[in-house]
Amino acid sequence: MTDNRRLRTRWLGAQPIGGLFALPYLIFVIAIFAYPLGFAVYIAFHDYFFTAPGVEVDRPFVGFDNFATVLTDPRVLDALRNTLLFLVINVPLTAVFSLVLAVALNNGIRWAAAYRVAFYVPYLTASVSLVGVWMLLFSGNGLVNTILGPFAPDPSWLVNSALAMPMIALYVTWKEMGFYILLYLAALQNVPKELYESSETDGASIFTRFRHVTVPGVRNATTLVLILSIITGANLFTEPYLLTNGGGPDGASTTPALLIYQLGIQQQNPDTAAAIGIILVILVGLLSLAAQRATKER
Amino acid sequence: MTRSKIAPRVVSATLLTIAAIGFAFPFYFMLVGAFQENPTNSPTSLFPTSGWTVDNFLAIDSRIDLVGSLVNSVIITGAVLLGTVVFGVLAGYAIARLDFRGRGMIWVLMLLVQMVPFQLLMIPLYIQITRNYGLGDSYLGMVLPFIINTTAVFIFAQFFRALPVEIFEAARIDGAGELRLLFSIAIPLIRPALVTVILVTFIGPWNEFLWPFLITKDAALQPLAVSLANYISNAAQSTANPNGAILAGATALAFPVVILFIFFQRFFTATDLGAAVKG
Asked: Alpha-carbon distance B269 to B72, whole Å?
């Protein structure tokens, strides 16, 4: 190796062409993630408003003003409360049912592939399609109410302020479950078979084995399932927008993402909208950290 | 077989059957309703014996240009897949197999990208793309935020990393350049990864609603998810049979993906997905 070559290797690596291969991705990450991220922080701390293209205007730094506006806005507080209600229903249901179904699928039953397809088809399908179906199923004179007859809730499911958010939580649990079942199926492959065998020899029941072998064995996957479902919950837009007609009734199913759209784009206040985004990310980070702590090995 | 082995299977099969009915029923309801003259809401009409028709598809087509929006969906999805595969293979290969300055930094960036929620970027991206770049109401504007998929880069990197190091050493000793190594040796060996990536990334742009909805006002450019959503929220009241039209539109949007996945489902395995998400 010549000195020149050795020097080049030290500075650029043995295959500097790799940098060229990765360059489009690097540009993409900077343009679509890093720059907008910084821009979001900038907007949130300034009095930012839309202007005609090319017009230079003064956008003064306003410190935490936008955050103060957001945190005293009852709509924002309601949206955060709605998200919390969503998470309280969605996250436990998702974690429990997806693990139980994955374990059942993993029991070596017949037609496992067909069952798996049935579970992940809703996950693959556009929410816009499925929302259309749920709207018809749960409308005032929909199939569900026809079957329930006198037991149908009044006002009906999607226009009832006590039921709108729980309905969205159930819908999302159902729609996303297939993905989480696949995650648990992958995790179950890594649970040592010997543990099941030895606990069976010790006379442990199915439930004891589930509790003491399966649940601890898939702990890492559980952490991931919790974090991903928290992120999904914080990002809800399509479902409240379509299923409950723009976050109704009376804002009972408004979400932060819906408010970001309404405040930022419809009402032209990008600065407060960006502040909601930042608050949301901090809350999601804290919740994810809590989920990670809660599922950690003790 | 002992009793202790049979009981769990019976419980599992029962549980799975009940759940599978719950998961599949809305699709059955959608499909039957889409082809019914007048989809009603009584349990008896769930098994229709007559009244089959394609009028609902004509009704939704007269309102939202079904074919035109499907073509838009295909263009957008195709562009995203092309970008994801071409740039994803290059980046994944470089990260997994090439030693160059900045490799560690790109890996860290990839992990960060996975953690940034789209909702935080929604406002700045909207300003950037519609106002600064003037790409509102354009295919490029709809495609740009999704043109490379980080999950796909992870999947490619995992597959390239799994290839034995000897192949690369031997080819380099034989004098193959890095480009030749990539195209003649590495890519042919990771063909299953290409199918996995296409399946995993296909559903994103095809089903995406929020972003194209934000940046398009021109109905002629909107993908089907957006036109159908607009029909559901605005125009449904003024059609003779809105329920049938909604279900027909929903079917047209849902079934290309469902059929593709059932067809290719043996490639879409739990382990690939787990590996991708774990990073």
From this structure: 29
Give CA–CA dist B206/B211, Å, rounded.
12
Give the per-residue pLDDT at B278. Answer: 40
Give pLDDT, residue B191: 86
Q: CB–CB of A19 and B94 under 8 A? A: yes
> Beta-strand (E) ranges in A84-209?
none
Measured CA distances, A122 to A131, B72, B263 (Å): 11, 23, 16
Q: pLDDT (tens digit, 9 = 90+) per residue, A102-118?
A: 999 988 788 888 898 89
Low-confidence ranges of chain B (pLDDT < 50): 1, 274-279
pLDDT at A259 over 90: yes
Angle ∠(A11,A14,A19) on CA atoms, nearest 5: 75
Cβ of B15 within 8 Å of Cβ of A100? The answer is yes
Which residues, 6+ apart, have CB-to-CB distance to B121 below 8 Å?
A32, A33, A36, A37, A40, A277, B145
Nearest to residue A224, comparing CAs of A213, A234, A232?
A232
Residue percentage of chain A with pLDDT more than 70: 96
| pTM to 2 decimal places | 0.91
Please check whether residue A33 touches B, CB under 8 A.
Answer: yes
How far does A298 lie from chain B, in Å, by closest CA?
22
Cross-chain CB nearest to B99 (options A14, A186, A234): A14
How many CB atoms lie under 10 A from the CB of residue B269? 16
Q: What ipTM, to 2 d.p.? A: 0.89
Say if A80 is an interface residue toward chain B (CB within 8 Å). no
Computed from CA positions of residues B95, B99, B100, B102, in that sequence, does the dihedral angle turn out positive or negative? positive
A16 contacts chain B (CB < 8 A): yes
Test A28 with B147 for CB contact under 8 angstroms.
yes
CB proximity A77 to B under 8 Å: no
Backbone angles phi, psi at B36, to 5 degrees: -105, 140
In what helix (H) or strand (E) does residue A166 lie, and over which residues does it extend? helix A164-188
Tokens representing B113 are: 């990208």
CA atoms within 13 A on the CB side of A261: 20
